[in-house]
TrEMBL record, chain A:
Belongs to the binding-protein-dependent transport system permease family. It is a multi-pass membrane protein. It is found in: Cell membrane. The keyword Ligase does not apply. This is Multiple sugar transport system permease protein. It comes from Arthrobacter cupressi. Pfam families: BPD_transp_1 (PF00528). The keyword Transmembrane helix applies.
From TrEMBL, chain B:
Pfam families: BPD_transp_1 (PF00528). Its main location: membrane. GO terms for cellular component: plasma membrane. It comes from Arthrobacter cupressi. This is Multiple sugar transport system permease protein. It is found in: Cell membrane. Keywords: Cell membrane, Membrane, Sugar transport, Transmembrane, Transmembrane helix, Transport. Belongs to the binding-protein-dependent transport system permease family. Coiled coil: none annotated.
Amino acid sequence: MSTASETRVRSKAVRGAAGKAERPGRDGRSGRERQPWLPWVFLAPTIVGMGIFTVLPIIASVALAFFRWDIISAPSFVGFDNFAEVVQDPTVRVSFLNTILFVVVAVALQLGLALGLAIMVQEKLPAWLRVFFRSAFFFPLILSAASVSIFMRYLFNEQFGVVNWLLSLVGIPAVPWLTTPGGSAAVVILVYVWQNFGFSFLLFIGGLASIPVETYEAASLDGATGWRKHLHVTLPLLSPTTLVASVMAIINALQVFDQPFVLTRGGPGDSTRTAVMVIFESAFQRLEFGQASAIGVILTLIIMAITAAQFRLSKRFVFYQ
Amino acid sequence: MTTTTERTAGLNAAGRVVRRRKRDWSVAGRIVLLSIAAVLVLGPVLWTLSTSLRPPAESFQLPPSFLPLDPDFVSYGQVFKQLNIIGLVINSALVTGLIAVGQMITAALAGYAFANLKFRGRGALFSVVLATMMVPAQVTIVPVFMLIRGVGLSDTLLALILPAIPTAFGTFLMRQYFLGLPADLAEAAAIDGASPWRTFRSVYAPLAMPGLSIVGILAFNFHWNEFFRPLIMTISEQNFTLPLGLVSLQGNLGTGSISVVLAGVVLSMIPALVVFMFGQRALRDGLTAGTGK
């Protein structure tokens, strides 16, 4: 060990000296003197690709929001008409309302579960059990939301589903999960949280691991035990992680599509229709591309506002060590 | 004097015993709660596996079984008959594989430029790259769809592959990775007479393989499971990817043959399972990268 590190130090010194003596320009790393175009060769695939498939579409999407276009006839400029129509459209309004309700409930459940389980996993526990639980909670993340929704639809079947069978064992009559507005909303939320809480769980595990053990020792010397310890030590010290985890969870939940599409197709009625579902439907089923873009612009503005709020909040409320 | 010390020592010992017993109970309680959570998480997957291994007629049998004690592979035979599953697998593999390789190459190049090469506007350009991550793909899908349609690529696999190759997140990840590698390697390579390209190719790229594998595994996991873009970009069944094919199979079949659908679901999970077993660490690191943990 010691010899290896000594050699490394020595060779570093030699190299440093040689570098100083021989380096032609200011910076040996850049190669700027000889080939100023070189960085652009490295960047070209990404920059050109993102220009075509991300930046231009963003601009086009904003522009398109001010046009009426069904692909077949020529686009016509309509000013803010699309926004006005979209804001008044009852389906769009219900869908945004659904999305906001979904985000509030799903994110609260997701973060609560993730935090509770992360604290329990990180405390004293046999090592093999810790590994097992961590892998288990992480596992749903690797599955496709579409596949998960496929088997969950069977599990929540009113007559033959396992969920209602389990409920019947404790004397609860069959719940009409997928045929009532409330039941459908509950299934979409449960299935979404089932698959995604593992992501917040991972973030919390990382955050908990970075809290120094001495802090807990100091707290227990002061007489803090059990949940009081977590209330007064863990939660404040975890607040940067909590903020990141909640913002990421909110942004992801705002874009929910796969689960409601496969589980309920937005129904019954519009009860589980989400913002992204109406973008999909107005663009690719009704061919109202201008309106779809207007809805997309509104959704993006909401997401950007939340991201901006994150930065504000992190300055004011988050406790940094 | 001696009696007091003895008494306090005795008290201390008793206190310790009480506390340890309390701790044992709290550990047991936590294990119970965590086990319930684990059963709720793994139960549905086990049910899917065990139901796919039952004859179609017994799909909805209650009480359900969660362990495939008496496996029956009829449904697996059926899924090959009722669904062009080999075609779906080939499509998914092509799309996912080419996206993953494409992302690894482009992200390595761009990440290296942002980390190790100096050029005008580097900071500004990198900010633009990061900013694009804020805009959800569902929002840009309409113009992307029109562009793809305009160049005559609609309803092809290329329509899924090309737009997914440039990756802001991968570029960010690789920049961080290259920044973590020692800078004097480039100096040493320059002294040895290596060109900047050679320095990247033979010195930095091999060292960045762990970072690159994270980019590749994340791309694989995301695009293997992707549903939204294939739903929009492909029309004919021969261009479907696995998730899309399975959802349409569920739509076509009645509830009588759910074990067939579930057999397809299980088959589609196998590659993800392999990644889970061998690349869990990389996947975890990648998913939480850039969250400032």
